[in-house]
Write a structure and sequence with these properties.
By secondary structure, the chain is of the alpha/beta class. 40% of the residues lie in helices and 16% in strands. One of its GO terms (molecular function) is hydrolase activity, acting on ester bonds.
Length: 255
């Protein structure tokens, strides 16, 4: 059994063949898919997916850092109103992203901190997105207070030092996706340092397709390639990697 802990199959890229995508996921052993939110514009599509495949899909509500601007508080309120009616299993994806621009850097930190506080209040895990912003991300997490706060650092592609710092936050897991299969990725060198009970698998579909599907639209069924690659690096079986990471996801998201 496999769980795709982070996928965006509600986006336009899947508008014409979603049924086939979900079937291929099931045929490849994917039991659950976690759909993280981007902004208020994506809430309706997410909900439609979950209602169509209630046995397969769980939702996470949150405001993505690249969707943060000066009106973030109003935008977040719209999203949280959805959560009240259709409860999710996590707050996410949330975090900091300075890769494209830093225009709303302060607003991103405010929105991230606010959502960390909401997650603690609701006793929900967080799905953290960080890109070119590790120091500030960790500062926000630590300021929020890691007691009664859990979650996953999704799409991890950082350094050994960054991994070590995250692992000191004992309630947090590491999300690994197709990046691990890329030729220039350093992840294969540090995979063995991630405790087995703190590893999650994800696709981040439609993005970051793993080898041998690079250049094509990613989808949850391709999580098998990620599990197989990790298993090869760690000298384990893909089945064991799948079982352990599914167990971890069930524990974190209470599914």
């Amino acid at each position: 059994m496999l769980i795709d802990s982070h996928t965006h199959i509600y986006t336009e890229e899947f508008s014409t063949d979603l049924d086939d995508v979900v079937k291929r996921a099931s045929d490849n052993g994917v039991a659950f898919m976690i759909l993280p939110n981007i902004d208020s514009a994506s809430t309706e599509q997410m909900l439609a997916c979950q209602q169509k495949y209630p046995e397969k899909i769980r939702l996470a509500w949150g405001l993505h850092p690249t969707s943060v601007n000066s009106g973030w508080e109003q935008e977040l309120k719209k999203i949280l109103d959805f959560h009240k009616t259709y409860p999710g299993v996590a707050i996410g994806e949330i975090g900091l992203d300075y890769y494209w621009e830093e225009k709303y850097k302060e607003e991103q930190k405010e929105a991230f901190s606010a959502q960390l506080a909401i997650a603690k209040e609701m006793s929900l895990p967080v799905i953290i997105h960080q890109r070119s912003a590790h120091p500030d991300t960790m500062e926000c997490v630590k300021k929020a207070g890691v007691e009664n706060l859990s979650g996953v650092f999704h799409s991890f592609a950082g350094s050994l030092d960054e991994l070590d710092e995250i692992l000191t936050q004992t309630n947090f897991m590491i999300g690994i996706n197709g990046i691990v299969t890329f030729k220039n990725s350093n992840l294969k060198e540090i995979l063995h340092l991630i405790p087995g009970d703190r590893l999650l698998l994800e696709t981040d579909a439609p993005y970051l397709s793993p080898v041998p599907k690079r250049g094509k639209r990613n989808e949850p069924a391709y999580i098998n390639y990620i599990a197989a690659f990790i298993a090869d690096v760690l000298k384990e079986t893909p089945e064991k990697i799948g079982e352990q990471t599914a167990k971890n996801a069930r524990k974190l998201f209470k599914i």
